[in-house]
Amino acid sequence: MREVAHDYGERAVLRDVSLTLAEHRVGVVGANGSGKSTFARLLNGLVVPTSGTVLVDGLDTRTQLREVRRRVGFVFQDPDAQIVHPTVAEDVEFGLTNLGVPPQERARRVEEVLVRYGLAGHRDHPAHLLSGGQKQLLAIAGVLVMGPQRVVFDEPTTLLDLANTRRVARVIDELEHDVVVVTHQLDLLAGFDRVLVFDDGRVAADGTPAETVRWYVDRMS
Ligand SMILES: Nc1ncnc2c1ncn2[C@@H]1O[C@H](COP(=O)(O)OP(=O)(O)OP(=O)(O)O)[C@@H](O)[C@H]1O
Questions:
Q1: Does 82 contact ligand 1 (Cβ within 6 A)?
Q2: Fewer CB atoms inside 10 Å of the end CB: C or N, the chain?
Q3: Which residues form the ABC transporter domain (predicted)?
Q4: Alpha helix positions (H), the chain
């Protein structure tokens, strides 16, 4: 991303962000309102920059949005924002149907992710009756079934209790995909390759978790 700035109306929320993300696991931290979610949304074109350029594998999010979205999955903080279909299996299948994936292959891919995320027994259950943790796993399954190469998580554990936070953290840890995780839960980032600290719309620190998390905590205290 080169010289990226983003404004919502009159309000400048990101300024002068230039960086390349090449690491397997990148964390993003910072105070409320510092621009983390906006940054995360830039990565798959949910938000396009007001100025500057965001490239994903050389694809411009402004002009090649479909291809960018196919490569970069996005998991929202609130799984209810992402779950749109009545049953668990239908919800996971929805994106594949949209893509025109044939029924047999759809069934195989849906089954695979439901088993992987412990949801196979809930296949025909109403999605809205799942627990918060199961809903977040369903939202993750719905993103991963599409076969993205990278996944952005925007505060994926904020609404979860301790057990579900650990479960989702383990799921993220085990992913082979390149991931970017926005979080206020600093312990999620322990094994990460790189952490960005946002402050008032700029990248204020950028380094290993050991370097940046200490810097951030000291600054906040
Ligand atoms: N769609 C929008 N329209 C107008 N202002 C917005 C919009 N989305 C975010 N903002 C504002 O932009 C600023 C940055 O928001 P952003 O969500 O990127 O911050 P954040 O660091 O993710 O915050 P948090 O930790 O609270 O989630 C905030 O002041 C927010 O109120």
A1: no
A2: C
A3: 1-220
A4: 36-42, 65-71, 88-99, 103-116, 132-144, 162-174, 209-220
